[in-house]
């Protein structure tokens, strides 16, 4: 199913503006009214894409984590096996740390 380009654009714009606002003030201090005003949309557009501020933040975090995971996986995608002895200490430490964090494992 194709998503309308206008919907994609408004959703992307709202997320970008929310991130920008988060650099100025805390999550609690930002309002949906400020998000839509800065983005040039109305509240209806916000609510057609997200239910709450928590939902937009959750989506931003999930997308960011997914991008990070893809960047981490990229150098290893063509390998059928990874020889742990060939990894640098920092790579090995990173994977060991990541394995200890169950929240990240659900994205694999």
SSE order, one letter for each helix or strand: HHHHHH
Task: Output the CATH topology.
Answer: Tetracycline Repressor, domain 2
Helicity, as a percent range: 55-70%
| Rg from alpha-carbon coordinates | 18 Å
Number of domains: 1
Our estimate of the beta-strand percent is: under 5%
Q: Let me know the largest β-sheet.
A: none
Mean pLDDT: 83
Identify the overall geometry: elongated
Task: Specify the structural class.
Answer: mainly alpha
Protein name: HTH tetR-type domain-containing protein
Domain HTH tetR-type: 8-68
Keywords: DNA-binding, Repressor
GO molecular function, one term: DNA binding
Task: Please describe the topology of this protein.
Elements: H1 5-22, H2 32-39, H3 43-49, H4 53-73, H5 89-99, H6 102-105
Helix pairs in contact: 1-2
């Amino acid at each position: 199913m194709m998503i309308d380009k206008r919907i994609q654009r408004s959703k992307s714009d709202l997320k970008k503006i929310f991130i920008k606002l988060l650099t100025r003030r805390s999550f609690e201090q930002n309002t949906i009214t400020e998000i839509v005003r800065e983005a040039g949309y109305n509240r209806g557009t916000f609510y057609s894409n997200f239910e709450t501020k928590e939902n937009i933040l959750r989506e931003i975090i999930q997308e960011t984590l997914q991008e990070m995971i893809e960047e981490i996986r990229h150098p290893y995608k063509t390998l059928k096996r990874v020889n742990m002895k060939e990894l640098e200490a920092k790579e090995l430490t990173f994977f060991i740390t990541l394995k200890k964090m169950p929240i990240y494992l659900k994205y694999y």
